[in-house]
Amino acid sequence: MTDEGDRYLITPPPGLLPPAPPSDAPPAHAPAPLHTGTAPVPARGFATPAPGAVFGGPLAAEPARPAVLVLQDGRRLPIVGGLLLGRAPVARDDLGQAVPVPVTDAARSVSKTHALLRAEAGRVLVRDLGSTNGTWIVHADGRVDEVSSTAFSEVPATAHLELGHCPLRIEPGADDAAPHGPVVA
């Protein structure tokens, strides 16, 4: 029979045991002594605070929260850069670095590569890409504007988009600007 008590060690709380006798040799796990011949120097790239500097001032402003595209299937995509929307969108060199986003549409009213949605200076802009059933901005007052294939149009914060017959919602970001109308690309 083995002594199982040696397999499990319990460290007592501080102050329960008497201190260890002093020793001239540093413990085996002690770090190497620090060089104390010169004053410490700040790491390269860091400024030394001025004498009397006050810490705890106001923090930098948070970055603006982007607008969010909400698809019918519940996906929520931040509109950062460009989003290429369609049934099975294919990236094109003339559209920049837009991210292809497949849009589910049971009615099949969404074209393969339908529209380009992008964020620019706190605004959400959309351009139709020659789709069969069009891209529409539906305003809160019921007005409907057809989106051009030659210029970007701004989507106001209170409006939603329709690709063909497929509605898409846009939730405004933290610092979205007021509507400015069509934007020539």
Automatic annotation (TrEMBL):
<feature type="compositionally biased region" description="Low complexity">
    <location>
        <begin position="31"/>
        <end position="40"/>
    </location>
</feature>
<dbReference type="InterPro" id="IPR008984">
    <property type="entry name" value="SMAD_FHA_dom_sf"/>
</dbReference>
<protein>
    <recommendedName>
        <fullName>FHA domain-containing protein</fullName>
    </recommendedName>
</protein>
<feature type="domain" description="FHA">
    <location>
        <begin position="83"/>
        <end position="137"/>
    </location>
</feature>
<feature type="region of interest" description="Disordered">
    <location>
        <begin position="1"/>
        <end position="45"/>
    </location>
</feature>
<dbReference type="InterPro" id="IPR000253">
    <property type="entry name" value="FHA_dom"/>
</dbReference>
<dbReference type="Pfam" id="PF00498">
    <property type="entry name" value="FHA"/>
</dbReference>
<keyword id="KW-0597">Phosphoprotein</keyword>
<feature type="compositionally biased region" description="Pro residues">
    <location>
        <begin position="11"/>
        <end position="30"/>
    </location>
</feature>
